[in-house]
């Protein structure tokens, strides 16, 4: 077992909240990914690119709710739009014009994805996309890649995960991300049983290393040849390019899942795809795939998402990616092992908990696995602040 040398700063208010949480939540926790030992600090509020914890510490937020808050906290344009919508009702038992507008914006950026459905999380989007692929192909098996996270849906949970029935696990196979030869062997063996190949071109949990162009093209060519749906999971990576990270490879999949940034800070997921595949959801069909959701496509989320995307134009993408490339270069020059692309960076160390707390003590918030992302309110001074907190990596 890895030994850690964490030394959390004194956080009396967070400590008190955690003690209270232990009586109400298992292990004091309601979101596994936010746990850091011995317990996480608690957030109080956010302002632009800073998060203020309940003990009054002001942190440069390089976590941004796991890459969601592309415009930082409480962006005035998003808050104004959402406030206006909320004043006229937060959800209805009828569709609203917002779902059409957000779908139109997304198709204007990801042209091959002609039709969209909205959901409440990336997990839900992946779940429904896999169901659509199964319905479209009439096949049950899926192929995914080791250590790639696609949310909490059982079919994409890591093999052997506790609580996942063996019968469900038996419907999915795993290959090594980026290993083209292994992929070719597996697809040759499983090809005619596969409904979809689920792929993230730069998977965070597998180390945030971009796939090679040759690998992405092989996945596209083989899936197309064998009538398998290529499902591109862009829940995390959509922020890298307006057309999605996959567009930079010159590859058009059959389905794409989005989340995080497209909800402007509210719970969101989306499935986009080619008309013929998305047609499985058409309720006018004989046996449509049913996809409800009391809060799916709710106007508050969608309005926030529309504003977030309006603010996230080509100039904003270019600026954020350039800033990310610059920070990655600076950290590498100071001895850090870094991966990623554009505004997504991952720092690799043996003792991530120790680094997490050291940075926290220096006023920098990163993800529990060393993932870092930037937001549009950030300036060069914020990058300098981050680099200074990391300092030189001597070991
Ligand atoms: C690539 C990817 N897919 C799916 C998900 C699940 O999204 P959500 O947490 O909104 O359910 C995530 C979440 O981090 C993700 O990174």
Distance between the termini: 19 Å
Count the strands?
14
CATH homology superfamily of the largest domain:
Type I PLP-dependent aspartate aminotransferase-like (Major domain)
Low-confidence stretches: none
What is the correct CATH architecture of the largest domain? Answer: 3-Layer(aba) Sandwich
Question: How many H/I helices?
Answer: 13
Helix content: 25-40%
C-alpha Rg (nearest Å): 21 Å
Using brief descriptors, characterize the structure shown.
Aspartate Aminotransferase, domain 2, 13 helices, Aspartate Aminotransferase, domain 1, 14 strands, four-stranded mixed sheet, binds pyridoxal-5'-phosphate
What can you see in these coordinates?
By secondary structure, the protein is α/β, with parallel strands linked by helices. The chain folds into 2 domains: about 10-70 and about 315-390, Alpha-Beta Complex (Aspartate Aminotransferase, domain 1), CATH 3.90.1150.10; about 75-310, 3-Layer(aba) Sandwich (Aspartate Aminotransferase, domain 2), CATH 3.40.640.10. It contains 13 helices and 14 strands. It has a 7-stranded mixed beta sheet with strand order 4-10-9-8-7-5-6, with helices on both faces. The protein has a 4-stranded mixed beta sheet with strand order 1-2-3-13. Strands 11-12-14 form a 3-stranded antiparallel beta sheet. α3 runs antiparallel to α10, α4 runs parallel beside α10 (about 300-310) and α11 (about 315-335) runs parallel beside α13. The chain is globular and about 60 Å long. The model has no long low-confidence stretch (mean pLDDT about 95).
